[in-house]
C-alpha cells in the first residue's frame, strides 16, 4: 500500500548554536490523522526542532514542506496562519477571565462582539466538538486538565491542522490523563496531525502511531509503536540500557523533621497550607502530591525559609522559625526549587552557579574569590554528577534542562545536608537524568538524608517514598505508608473526592 504524502515534512534540518549543533540533518514526516511521538534526552534537539516547526528559530540548513510546498516559518504568527499550533507544557491563559474570553484571543474580531453574541457564536462553533467546556467558567477555577483542554480548544478554533503537544500530561492527575487521550484520538480521527513530545514511555507506546528518537541532535531511529518496546526506546535515547533502581532502605529511628499546625499564606494573602502536621525520620522519604496550586509551593518555601508561616517547624529538635534560607542551609537544609530559574543564575558559569551556596565561606581569600579553587571544586562536582558539557566556564544558560538540574543537585547536596526539600526534581528531564536523580536520592537517603519529595509524577512518588501524602486546597491528606496507596487512591487524595473514598 502506497504511503500518503505527508502533511508536514522536515528535510535535513540543521540548527547550530554557539558550541553545539542542536539539530544535525534531521528529516521527519508528519501525516494527517496520526499521532507522532518525539523522544530524546534533554539536549537531544527536541525543543529546537519544535521551535523550528513553530517559527521561533529559522533552520541554518534544510527545508520545511507543508502539503508538498516549501515554506519558510518566520514567526509563530506565520505558523498559526499556516495551521500549526503549539500547546505548551504550562498553559498560557488569562486566569481571571472566563473560558470564552480566553477563546476570543484566538478568534479574529472576537473582541468586537457583545458577551451574549460571543457566547452564541462559540456555542455554535463548538456544537458536536469532541472537547466541550463551560464557557462562562473562570479559568482560575479550572483543574489542570481543564486548562490543558482549553489550550487545545483555543488552537483548534484557529483552524489548526498540526497540533504540537509539549509534555501534555506532566501536570495532570491519573483521572485526567485518560480523557485527554480519548479526545486526542477523536481529533486524530478528524485528520489532525499530532506531534506528541513526552518523557513518559508508557504513554508514548499506548497512544502514538509512530515514534522518532533523537540523540545528540541526530535522528537515531523511527519506528511504529506496535514494533517498539520501552527497552528498545531507552537504548535508542541513551545509547545504553537503564540500570535497575536500587532498593529504598527502611528509615532510621528518631525524628529529623517535625511540622506542627503549619499555616502558610499565598502571595495574594490567601490560606495556602492549612494546619498541616507531619514528621520525617532520618533516612526517610515522604512524597507529597497535589495538582498545581494546591499549596505545594508554599509548603516548600516555608520549610526552606522563603516564606513566613505560623505553627512550628523543628530540625532534630531545633526550632526553625524566623531563619533565613542561608542560615537554614548552614544548619543542613538543602532545597531543589520548583523552577530552575529560581535556583540558578543563567548568565553565570557552571562553576559560579555551583558556588552560590559556598562562595562566601569556602572559596574566598579575603574579599576576593579564588578562581582556581572555584574551578577545581566545580570540576569535581561536574565529574561526579556527569554534567555536560564538562567545561566549568560554560554559561549555565547553554546547558539542557537535565544538566542544569544536575548542577542544582550537586550544589545542594554538597556538605552532607540533613534534610532535602526536593520540588519536581525530575520535571522535564529525560530518562537518563531521571535515572541518575532517583539513584542519587535513594543513595543519600540510605546514608541518613531525610527528603520531602514534592512531585506531580505519581509513579515517581510511589517508587521513591516510604510514605505519601497529598495536598488538596491546602489540606494535607496523609502521610500513609506507600504500600497502602495506589495510583487510583492517590489521584482521589488530590481531588474533591478525598482520601477515604473506596
Automatic annotation (TrEMBL):
<keyword id="KW-0067">ATP-binding</keyword>
<keyword id="KW-0547">Nucleotide-binding</keyword>
<dbReference type="InterPro" id="IPR027417">
    <property type="entry name" value="P-loop_NTPase"/>
</dbReference>
<feature type="domain" description="ABC transporter">
    <location>
        <begin position="257"/>
        <end position="498"/>
    </location>
</feature>
<dbReference type="InterPro" id="IPR050107">
    <property type="entry name" value="ABC_carbohydrate_import_ATPase"/>
</dbReference>
<protein>
    <submittedName>
        <fullName>Sugar ABC transporter, ATP-binding protein</fullName>
    </submittedName>
</protein>
<feature type="domain" description="ABC transporter">
    <location>
        <begin position="8"/>
        <end position="241"/>
    </location>
</feature>
<dbReference type="InterPro" id="IPR003439">
    <property type="entry name" value="ABC_transporter-like_ATP-bd"/>
</dbReference>
<dbReference type="GO" id="GO:0016887">
    <property type="term" value="F:ATP hydrolysis activity"/>
</dbReference>
<dbReference type="InterPro" id="IPR003593">
    <property type="entry name" value="AAA+_ATPase"/>
</dbReference>
<dbReference type="GO" id="GO:0005524">
    <property type="term" value="F:ATP binding"/>
</dbReference>
<dbReference type="Pfam" id="PF00005">
    <property type="entry name" value="ABC_tran"/>
</dbReference>
<dbReference type="InterPro" id="IPR017871">
    <property type="entry name" value="ABC_transporter-like_CS"/>
</dbReference>
Amino acid at each position: 500500500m502506497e504511503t500518503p504524502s505527508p502533511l508536514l515534512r522536515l528535510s535535513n534540518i540543521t540548527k547550530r548554536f554557539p558550541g553545539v549543533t542542536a539539530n544535525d540533518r534531521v528529516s521527519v514526516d508528519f501525516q494527517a490523522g496520526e499521532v507522532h511521538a518525539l523522544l530524546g534526552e534533554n539536549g537531544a534537539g527536541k525543543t529546537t526542532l519544535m521551535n523550528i516547526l513553530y517559527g521561533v528559530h529559522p533552520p541554518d540548513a534544510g527545508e520545511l514542506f507543508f502539503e508538498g510546498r516549501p515554506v519558510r516559518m518566520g514567526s509563530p504568527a506565520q505558523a498559526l496562519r499556516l495551521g500549526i499550533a503549539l500547546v505548551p507544557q504550562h498553559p498560557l491563559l488569562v486566569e481571571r477571565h472566563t473560558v470564552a474570553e480566553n477563546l476570543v484571543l484566538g478568534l479574529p474580531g472576537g473582541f468586537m462582539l457583545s458577551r451574549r453574541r460571543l457566547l452564541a457564536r462559540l456555542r455554535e462553533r463548538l456544537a458536536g466538538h469532541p472537547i466541550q467546556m463551560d464557557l462562562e467558567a473562570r479559568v482560575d477555577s479550572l483543574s489542570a486538565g481543564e486548562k490543558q483542554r482549553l489550550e487545545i480548544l483555543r488552537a483548534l478554533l484557529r483552524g489548526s491542522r498540526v497540533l504540537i503537544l509539549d509534555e501534555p500530561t506532566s501536570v495532570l492527575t491519573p483521572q485526567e490523563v485518560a480523557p485527554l487521550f480519548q479526545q486526542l484520538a477523536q481529533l486524530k480521527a478528524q485528520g489532525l496531525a499530532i506531534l506528541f513530545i513526552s518523557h513518559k514511555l508508557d504513554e508514548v507506546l499506548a497512544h502514538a502511531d509512530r515514534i522518532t528518537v533523537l540523540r545528540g541532535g541526530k535522528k537515531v531511529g523511527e519506528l511504529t509503536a506496535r514494533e517498539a518496546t520501552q527497552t528498545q526506546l531507552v537504548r535508542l535515547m541513551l545509547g545504553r540500557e537503564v540500570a535497575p533502581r536500587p532498593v529504598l532502605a527502611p528509615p532510621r529511628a528518631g525524628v529529623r523533621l517535625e511540622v506542627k499546625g503549619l499555616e502558610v499564606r499565598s502571595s495574594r494573602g490567601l490560606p495556602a497550607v492549612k494546619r498541616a502536621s507531619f514528621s520525617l525520620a532520618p533516612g526517610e522519604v515522604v512524597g507529597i502530591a497535589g495538582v498545581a496550586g494546591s499549596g505545594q509551593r508554599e509548603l516548600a518555601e516555608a520549610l526552606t525559609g522563603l516564606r513566613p508561616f505560623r505553627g512550628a517547624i523543628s530540625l532534630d529538635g531545633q526550632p526553625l522559625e524566623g531563619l533565613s534560607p542561608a542560615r537554614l542551609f548552614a544548619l543542613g537544609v538543602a532545597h531543589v526549587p520548583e523552577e530552575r530559574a529560581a535556583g540558578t543564575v543563567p548568565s553565570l558559569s557552571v562553576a559560579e552557579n555551583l558556588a552560590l551556596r559556598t562562595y562566601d565561606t569556602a572559596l574566598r581569600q579575603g574579599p576576593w574569590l579564588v578562581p582556581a579553587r572555584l574551578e577545581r571544586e566545580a570540576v569535581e562536582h561536574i565529574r561526579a554528577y556527569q554534567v555536560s558539557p564538562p567545561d566549568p566556564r560554560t554559561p549555565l544558560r547553554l546547558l539542557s534542562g537535565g544538566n542544569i538540574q544536575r548542577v542544582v543537585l550537586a550544589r545542594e547536596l554538597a556538605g552532607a545536608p540533613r534534610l532535602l526539600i526536593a520540588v519536581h526534581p525530575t520535571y522535564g528531564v529525560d530518562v537518563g537524568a531521571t535515572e541518575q536523580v532517583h539513584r542519587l536520592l535513594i543513595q543519600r537517603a540510605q546514608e541518613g538524608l531525610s527528603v520531602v519529595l514534592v512531585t506531580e509524577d505519581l509513579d515517581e512518588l510511589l517508587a521513591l517514598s516510604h510514605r505519601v501524602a497529598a495536598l488538596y486546597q491546602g489540606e494535607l491528606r496523609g502521610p500513609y505508608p506507600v504500600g497502602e496507596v495506589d495510583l487510583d487512591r492517590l489521584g482521589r487524595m488530590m481531588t474533591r473526592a478525598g482520601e477515604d473514598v473506596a
